[in-house]
């Protein structure tokens, strides 16, 4: 296999995009929705000359709201459902748009069941087609509610071990609650599929995000324990993280259970095939978080309090991607290859024609060999001013000492430039096939608007923009920058 033989729809044209998680969209409710405001955002992207919308994982988060620690790798985040779209589709009366989401969903379910029309048939077909993950997810959600939200390894043994008689009893006792979970998933994916169709009609690709690991307290681990390195009590034997480095003397202990890659290989990576296959039904391309873990991963004994006692173990490597390629015929993937990356990881990425990431905020430390400097970019890549884990570009720049600010602007050949525009122009003018800008940078917002501060657990994931934050003419300004950088693809 070589790069020339590996199709990747991300790279078919020179294009640019915006990172904005749907929770950050404007509108009523505690998070953004994938209805009218999302369609308005697509209009703005098209006006500004962008042809890619990058989102964070769309799965249902745990209590802290992080889309990188979810209760399912398959299910959708039903907080994003727009009740107004159910009104628009004729499922609910106009006054139902202000109902609590759970009530609106159940009334829509009842209305569709009574009508028994093509949409009800569509729902029943969805339940049947997605049963391999949907039934386990529904059971997980309902049992968790009945068990006071306790993690699954603290459930009574018959539920923990999924004893057939107890599960069947639960299906009968909680039939309505299980049906509510199924229907909410149907509505989420129906609305998301409609949004993707709207995006593709504008020649806008949807780039999603897939963490390599899954949360221990998730439907995935409870329902498929054989895929994970667990003991008989459901506890991890080893957990994920990264070793000590320049940034942390103790490394990072993430706590996700590791996969049993040997077992997965014997199944033809069946669980991963389902996971990626389902994601590619809903997205045009995927960013694989912590790509280096496929070449080698840091394995930490579960009883170690830090990452110091871990060791590198080989990942599935090329065999995994060969299996994906055989199954899907192409690999529309972006490899998150930030941090300390070995030649072996780079070789794996380039062997399959997968673009890597270049973050411009990282470009100004070190010498001329810094790989993030624009002159060191390659076409097989995706360049960012920053990501959801970085400060906004304006916040980053304002945090630098005055002499470093001057050095950055001089390096960008814009000594009198006003951030974030020199960095945005540099990203757009990069030889990298794709350039992506956080929405905060497109709006020139300061560091109080950042999405996430890695290593912290409070105050993250809640940022939202308002249309009042968008200056008049900003879309036109960005479109001219995209045109100058040859990033508006011909249809």
User: What portion of the residues fall into strands of 2 or more residues?
Assistant: 5-15%
Oligomer: single chain
**Silhouette:** globular
Number of H/I helices: 18
Strand order of the largest sheet: 9-6-3-2-1-12-11-10
Largest sheet: 8 strands, parallel
The helical percent reads: 25-40%
Q: Mean pLDDT, rounded to whole units?
A: 95
* Unreliable runs: 1-5
Q: How are helices and strands ordered from N to C?
A: EHEHHHHHHHEHEEHHEEEHEHEEHHHEHH
Backbone CA Rg: 23 Å
User: Using DSSP, what is the number of strands?
Assistant: 12
Q: Give me the secondary-structure category.
A: alpha/beta
Termini Cα gap: 30 Å
Walk me through what this model shows.
There is one protein chain. With 491 residues, this protein is an alpha/beta fold. Helix content is 38%, strand content 12%. The model is unreliable at 1-5 (pLDDT under 50).
Characteristic terms for this protein:
491 residues, 12% strand, eight-stranded parallel sheet, 18 helices
Secondary structure layout plus pairing:
Elements: E1 15-19, H1 36-48, E2 52-54, H2 83-88, H3 101-115, H4 118-129, H5 131-146, H6 157-160, H7 164-173, H8 175-201, E3 205-211, H9 219-223, E4 238-242, E5 252-257, H10 261-266, H11 270-282, E6 285-289, E7 296-301, E8 311-314, H12 318-328, E9 333-335, H13 343-351, E10 356-359, E11 381-384, H14 393-398, H15 402-411, H16 421-429, E12 434-438, H17 439-442, H18 474-484
Parallel strand pairs: 1-2, 1-12, 2-3, 3-6, 6-9, 10-11, 11-12
Antiparallel strand pairs: 4-5, 4-7, 7-8
């Amino acid at each position: 296999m070589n790069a020339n033989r590996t199709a990747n729809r991300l790279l078919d044209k020179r294009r640019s995009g915006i990172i904005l998680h749907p929770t950050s969209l404007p509108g009523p409710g505690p998070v953004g929705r994938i209805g009218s405001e999302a369609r308005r955002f697509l209009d703005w992207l098209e006006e500004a000359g962008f042809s890619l919308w990058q989102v964070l994982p769309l799965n249902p988060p745990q209590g802290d709201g992080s889309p990188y620690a979810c209760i399912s790798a398959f299910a959708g985040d039903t907080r994003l459902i727009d009740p107004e779209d159910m009104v628009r589709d004729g499922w609910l009366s106009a006054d139902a748009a202000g109902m609590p989401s759970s009530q609106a969903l159940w009334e829509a379910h009842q209305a569709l069941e009574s009508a028994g029309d093509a949409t009800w048939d569509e729902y029943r077909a969805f339940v049947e087609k997605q049963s391999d993950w949907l039934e386990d997810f529904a059971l997980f959600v309902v049992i968790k509610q009945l068990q006071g939200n306790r993690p699954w390894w603290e459930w009574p043994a018959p539920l923990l071990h999924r004893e057939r008689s107890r599960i069947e009893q639960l299906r009968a006792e909680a039939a309505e609650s299980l049906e509510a979970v199924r229907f909410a998933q149907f509505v989420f994916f129906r609305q998301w599929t409609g949004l993707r169709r709207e995006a593709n009609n504008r020649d806008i690709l949807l780039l999603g995000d897939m963490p390599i690991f899954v949360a221990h307290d998730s439907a995935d681990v409870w329902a498929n324990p054989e895929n994970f390195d667990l003991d008989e009590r459901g506890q991890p034997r080893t957990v994920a993280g990264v070793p000590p480095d320049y940034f942390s003397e103790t490394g990072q202990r993430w706590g996700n259970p590791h996969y049993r890659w040997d077992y997965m290989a014997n199944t033809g990576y069946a669980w991963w095939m389902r996971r990626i296959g389902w994601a590619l039904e809903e997205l045009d391309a995927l960013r694989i978080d912590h790509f280096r873990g496929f070449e080698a991963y840091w394995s930490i004994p579960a009883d170690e309090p830090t990452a110091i006692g871990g060791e590198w173990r080989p990942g599935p490597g090329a065999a995994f991607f060969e299996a994906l390629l055989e199954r899907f015929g192409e690999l529309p993937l972006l490899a998150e290859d930030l941090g300390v990356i070995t030649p072996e990881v780079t070789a794996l990425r380039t062997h399959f024609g997968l673009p890597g990431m270049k973050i411009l905020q990282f470009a100004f430390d070190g010498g001329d060999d810094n790989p993030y400097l624009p002159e060191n970019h390659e076409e097989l890549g995706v360049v960012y001013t920053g990501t959801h884990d970085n400060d906004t570009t304006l916040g980053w720049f304002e945090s630098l000492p005055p002499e470093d600010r001057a050095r950055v602007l001089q390096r960008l050949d814009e000594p009198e430039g006003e951030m974030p525009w020199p960095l945005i122009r540099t990203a757009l003018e990069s030889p990298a096939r794709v350039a992506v800008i956080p929405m905060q940078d497109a709006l020139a917002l300061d560091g109080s608007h950042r999405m996430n501060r890695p290593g912290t657990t409070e105050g993250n994931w809640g940022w939202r923009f308002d249309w009042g934050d968008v200056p008049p003419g900003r879309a036109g300004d960005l479109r001219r920058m995209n045109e100058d950088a040859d990033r508006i693809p011909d249809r």
